[in-house]
Amino acid sequence: MTRKSGLGRGLDALITVEGKAPSTGVEEIPVDVIAPNPRQPRSSYDQDDMEQLADSIREHGVIQPLLITKDDNNPDIFILIAGERRLMAAKRAGLETVPVIVREASDQQLLVLALIENIQRSDLNPMEEADAYRQLAEDFGLTHEEIAERVAKSRPEVTNTLRLLKLADRVQESLVDGKISKGHARALAALPTFQAQSAALHTVIANQLNVRQTEALVERLSGQKKVAIPKPSQSPEIVSLEERLRSYLGAKVSLKQYGQGGAINIRYFSDEELNSLLDILLPEE
Fold first, then answer.
1. How far is CA 271 from CA 10, 100, 215, 262, 276, in A?
2. List 84, 129, 157, 273, catalytic entry
């Protein structure tokens, strides 16, 4: 499916002022009059990374201007649209002013543009990304397809990321800490209770299960299979192909060989996931 991407353009190019082209003027304003973006999806920052950025700003200044918008409730304050790391590092470096570009932006744009900036830099952890998509869906009524269009992601990727919000806290923490992958987390999300997810998580980490083995564990715990966790018995080529199909489709995929032929089995767990698969397998002309 071909999708227009907005991630290749500068963020300021994504905002237009009603009735006229946006200004491109850069000006210097005090850091104290810039308030954080209330829709910023990122909640944590690496302190060593921030100190390195502050050192760079001390030596070279802020190279890329921040994007800001006027606060409708306070004419003396501006709201940050994009550039929170630069603003924090500039304050740490002792700067009194920073270069900015002023744009008009709605509350929805504050979230979308902050989300896009972090995606461009791969700064968001999976749970921060999932919560940002949740805000777009619940606060602004956007469908999964509309969210995907705005952040230049596929619809299945948005849907699968939102499923992470159904995970137990322990599973979410393990995902953020890098103890499990998003593939592990998606498999665990199929379990119906937080207790079952947490118990399965312990087994996954203790036995260092891969994604395929985790899916088998989930099936067994759900009563779908009464067998032990299987060891991969297919050829490395088939196992690799299964992993590629899982990544592309965002769903569980298994390949079975029967003589010279075989079968591809694709699992889905909701109507939303089925629709996402159909978007990929049966794209519109």
1. 36, 45, 20, 26, 9
2. 84
Q: What is the DSSP letter of 222?
A: T
Listing DSSP states for 122-168 in one string gives: T---HHHHHHHHHHHHHTT---HHHHHHHHT--HHHHHHHHHGGGS-
205 lies in some domain: yes
Task: Encode pLDDT of 162-197 as tens digits.
Answer: 999 989 999 999 998 899 998 999 999 989 899 999
84 is annotated as an active-site residue: yes
User: Model-level pTM?
Assistant: 0.53
Looking at the fold, whether 242 and 225 belong to one and the same domain comes out as: no
Burial of 138 (0-12, 13-18, 19+ CB in 10 A): exposed
Q: Indicate if the pLDDT at residue 16 is higher than 80.
A: no
Point out the domain boundary residue: 121, 152, 171. 121
**CA distances, 54 to each of 88, 100, 276 (Å):** 8, 17, 43
What's the domain range around 100?
A: 11-121
- 126 vs 258 pLDDT, higher one: 126
Supply the DSSP symbol for 11.
Answer: G
